[in-house]
Amino acid sequence: MSSDTTTRRGGNSFDHLDTPTLDAESAGLLHAISEHGGYAFVGMAAQAAAGDFRAAEAAREMAWEQLHSGPWHSVLPVWRNAYSMACLRMADLHFAGGEFKEALRVLDMGLIMGGMLLRKDLDAAVEKVSTRARGDSRVSGSGCNGGSSKSESRLVDGELDKAEMLRVLPQKSLSCKIVVKRSALSLEGFLREYFLSGLPVLISDSMAHWPARTKWNDLDYLKTVAGDRTVPVEVGKNYLCPEWKQELITFSQFLERIQATGSSSVVPTTYLAQHPLFDQINELRNDICIPDYCFAGGGELRSLNAWFGPAGTVTPLHHDPHHNILAQVVGKKYVRLYPASLSEELYPYSETMLCNSSQMPEICSTSINRQEL
Hints:
Helix content is 40%, strand content 7%. The chain has helices spanning 20-35, 39-49, 53-67, 77-96, 100-113, 119-140, 162-168, 187-195, 212-215, 219-226, 251-261, 277-280, 282-285, 361-364, and strands at residues 181-183, 202-204, 230-235, 245-250, 270-275, 306-308.
């Protein structure tokens, strides 16, 4: 921002973000924050609501410090909601100044790190800012095509060479036929033959109608709908390696790293893993359908996450606390499964944080994928 304070122009809703939930809940939220010692935050929040950008920045920094004051599970919900409030105030001021990319970045931070109280306001604000930003891009002619050829705009071009894949995987990796492949498997058949008996199965032809099957292999499309959005990524070989870390980057930066990974050993592996991307970016959520198999046995959907990475991305051998349905949208992924009865023979870590992961590096290195989603 060019000045210390910024005031909304007139009362035109075109120049600021509508925040009906924040307007209704602001007094109660600020009272709750003050009860937890956030008097300084309350003061800055009041100035931010009046148009003071630096006060909005200060309020967000105060909430950010509270989010990092201890383990994530011990963070009080009121501070997550405080962070959402500060993000909305900052995004509103960026938006009023025509700084749409900055507004989106702040809103995404609110979605990723904030609480649920102001979620609807954040989602509505993202939609409004995104619409304005795309409109400006079309007017200025700064679209994503840039005259690129079809092959250049594709994430995965052609089929993976099987001989090449077998050179990377352990011997006889694809020779096992224990896991059967079924086409047009009914929900009743899935429940009776596999779910209740705890057997894995490969289900083909159940995703052909998903728009994601074609759209997500198009770089221009991904950059258009999600390029300016901020996402959390993992950097490094895998989460068991000492050099592994997490970063927040834009989706366009992430796509650039994916393209560079195969051509340069300097670029570290960057993986968008186990992130609720579809809660954050509605356009991508509209490209998929939740399979009926997810509701087998009358259970509820526990989570809907995305995994998106370059060729060679590795996930160490581990087990999850609930059942999984992996939908491979673009590219291929090699998955190695072991029965639960062999858990102790796979040497799980004794530490609480890693007790679901194996210590055996020769197993950890046997996964391969191409543009996993």
